[in-house]
Amino acid sequence: MASVTVLNVMDRQLLAILIEPIKAELGVSDAAMGLLTGTSFALLHVFATIPIAVWADRGVRRSILAMGLALWSGLTVLTGFARSYGEIFLIRVGVGIGEATGGGPAQSYLSDAFPPERRATAISVLVMGGPLGSMVAFAAGGWLGDAVGWRAAFVIFGAPGLVLAVLIRLLLLEPARGASDGLAEPDERHAAAPGSQETAPLAAVPFAESTRFLIGIPAIRNLVLGAGLNTVGIYAVLVWSVPYLSRVHGLSASEAGPRLAIASGLFTALGTLAGGWLADRLARRDPRWLAWLPAMTSALALPFGVAFALAPNGDAASVLLAPASFMAGTYFGPVLGAVQTLAEPRMRSLAASAITASNTILGLGIAPPLVGLLNDLGAASQGDHSIRYSLAGLMVVHLAAALLFWRASTTLREDLRAQGRFREGRL
Fold this sequence. Notes:
Number of helices: 17
Distance between the termini: 25 Å
Oligomer: single chain
CATH architecture: Up-down Bundle
Order of helices and strands: HHHHHHHHHHHHHHHHH
CATH superfamily: MFS general substrate transporter like domains
CATH topology: Growth Hormone, Chain: A
Radius of gyration: 21 Å
Structural class: mainly alpha
């Protein structure tokens, strides 16, 4: 599952890394590239996420994952053959539809394979594939772009996903719904969850009923919106960090890539893993730590993010990005784990898709084009340095996310009790 997330973000991130050569060949503005890196992907991704989640709450999740992986990987390869801005835009729309299969179905799969007290860690390992994918993209994408050109880089990045899609369909077993929560009956047709007896699937829940149920839980509302706001800051840096280091500090894509692979990719991965591991342990004492921890770390991401954007040189920027990335990445495990635990087993893909939709609309749909627009508006007075002020100003979203996570903590214990999920020593 984590390998799917690695490829998901690798293919998505490559376009951002190669902004400068693609922009030069196509002859477009920063605002247009912001639309290409964010809005084109988000356009149908968010609308595809919900029906795919409903499908995953009823169908075979490994098959859905395999089909989506094959689709977005094939379209990533096709990007290398596009001849115009419009063609790349349409291809990225298709990539967004394919990658809509990578969130809800995968989180639902793992939630049925791991019990509540291990769920944040398991989901952290899944989500950690994202920053690891960024790490690979930063390390190899810039180098490939310089060495063989941006078109060949897309072909090379897309090909492995076609192979992995076949392996997932053939080798993965499907865990039963609710198995890890002890909510279903034994049945031989399904794979056993670790530490659980084999169980049969629970009855499907109508979409409207599932939606009302999830929206009616206050903690879920605050966690979902907080996740989206946190992702605004994350994607602003992911998409525009290479142009920032290039324009402000004079680094080429191949020079900036290895720095960002470590400072952004590696440290976000470490933060993601640490956040899930620590949240699982703290939540055994008090489940509100699932919201308290990301509230604290999101607030701490703000000063480090601003310092990164205003750094005096490339070395300082690289060093300051590391703690910002670590803090920003810690929210994934506890927040996604809490939402999965609050949701009923047949609603978990839909619950995960709510976070995916929030992250996509705010993080990908708004952040990249907003930074690009601010860059263009500030270019007259600040020149190439306008990008640093665009990035610095946008970091305030981490503070807003922290406030929403804190609000979630005020109802989380009661919400868990109401759903019958709170058990001393487990959650």
